[in-house]
Amino acid sequence: MSDHAFVWVWLPGATDPVVAGRVQQQVQAGRPASYSFTYGRSYLQNPRAVPLLAELPMEQGVQMPASGLEIAGVLLDATPDSWGRRVINERVLGARTRQSEPADLDLLTYMLRSGSDRIGALDFQTSATEYIARNAEHQATLDELMDAAALIEKGEALSPAIADALFLGSSVGGARPKASLIDGGRSLIAKFPSTTDQYPIVKYEGVAMELARRVGITTAKTEVRHTAGRDVLIVERFDRPGDGTRMMQVSALTILGVNPETARGATSYPAVADKIRSSFTQPRAALSELFARIVFNVIVRNTDDHARNTAAFWDGHALTLTPAYDITPSHGRRDSIASHPMAIDVDGDNQSLLAVCIDAAAAYLLSNEEAQEIVDRQVDLVREEWRDAADTARLTTRERDALWETSILNPAIFWER
């Protein structure tokens, strides 16, 4: 396999990509140790060019990743995550990956063997002069894609045509089974149930996203569909405006400059708030929106709100929060306090308590009264909208009972610190 790849980018407003530079594998003791990046001369001379992110300023020469990182975060954000890597392992290794848990392929392999319709506006190519999109040739049905995802989870072989269709979604992040779709010009992500699910996570995410919209949070558009006896969550991509352009996008993990391997305990919402104040457009509005999302995560017991599940658009000059996504209630016992992967206040408190949110108001440039108003409004609206939102997400009576006041509005969230 090659020791380098070329990074192509869709500049703001552009419908075709240009080559931005080269990512180079740096080897130490015979193993990949890190990945450097160098802007191409043509890109540096392009009057429309923008830095891929502030961490990679537009300048000549080799740029190594910041201390503690294997690769610049903006490049890592564009690579496949857990699920995509499983799909690529199946495609590249075949039976070898089914016989035992294989060692990960190197990062360049994942870059160059994944689909080109990846999150954001970057892609990786073997050529600096010719862009060739890696797209699926076989257009599979939703049922076929769900069946294929289940086979990968079970470690069973796929037909070449179905493996090719599932490959299209290999560049989309996340750990759960999913696939990319195009429907009437809309770019969609289909999120499937997992063979290991102990409860209907797809529908739980569907109702949480519906409630988030109803309390006023800007979210990705979602819809729960039932097909072939199974539920699937259809998510409309917000990084694809539909006019052939692509939105540059980075995760909060990248914005914070944190290694994903050590992120838990090393990231916090106040740290994200600091970046919003310094690097975002309309920081006060963004801080209020971030605070509202934190409150909602507490209300619905979304404890998967790690730094990769918050993201921002990058226009080459400033950042803007993307719509919220991946809001999934976790199972819990009534009257039990959950915790979040990122601290809510400056003292490191990550308890899933509304009191923690209110006491942290100043970190988000809010008064305690303003914070209390946001909390009260969301609690009231969730109570008012619950039944209708549950209908929209196709929840059964049993599923509603399992969520209400255990995951959603668990009495423990109202406790004092």
From TrEMBL:
<dbReference type="InterPro" id="IPR017508">
    <property type="entry name" value="HipA_N1"/>
</dbReference>
<dbReference type="Pfam" id="PF07804">
    <property type="entry name" value="HipA_C"/>
</dbReference>
<protein>
    <submittedName>
        <fullName>Serine/threonine-protein kinase HipA</fullName>
    </submittedName>
</protein>
<feature type="domain" description="HipA N-terminal subdomain 1">
    <location>
        <begin position="31"/>
        <end position="124"/>
    </location>
</feature>
<dbReference type="InterPro" id="IPR052028">
    <property type="entry name" value="HipA_Ser/Thr_kinase"/>
</dbReference>
<dbReference type="InterPro" id="IPR012893">
    <property type="entry name" value="HipA-like_C"/>
</dbReference>
<feature type="domain" description="HipA-like C-terminal">
    <location>
        <begin position="170"/>
        <end position="386"/>
    </location>
</feature>
<comment type="similarity">
    <text>Belongs to the HipA Ser/Thr kinase family.</text>
</comment>
<dbReference type="GO" id="GO:0005829">
    <property type="term" value="C:cytosol"/>
</dbReference>
<dbReference type="Pfam" id="PF13657">
    <property type="entry name" value="Couple_hipA"/>
</dbReference>
<keyword id="KW-0418">Kinase</keyword>
<dbReference type="GO" id="GO:0004674">
    <property type="term" value="F:protein serine/threonine kinase activity"/>
</dbReference>
<keyword id="KW-0808">Transferase</keyword>
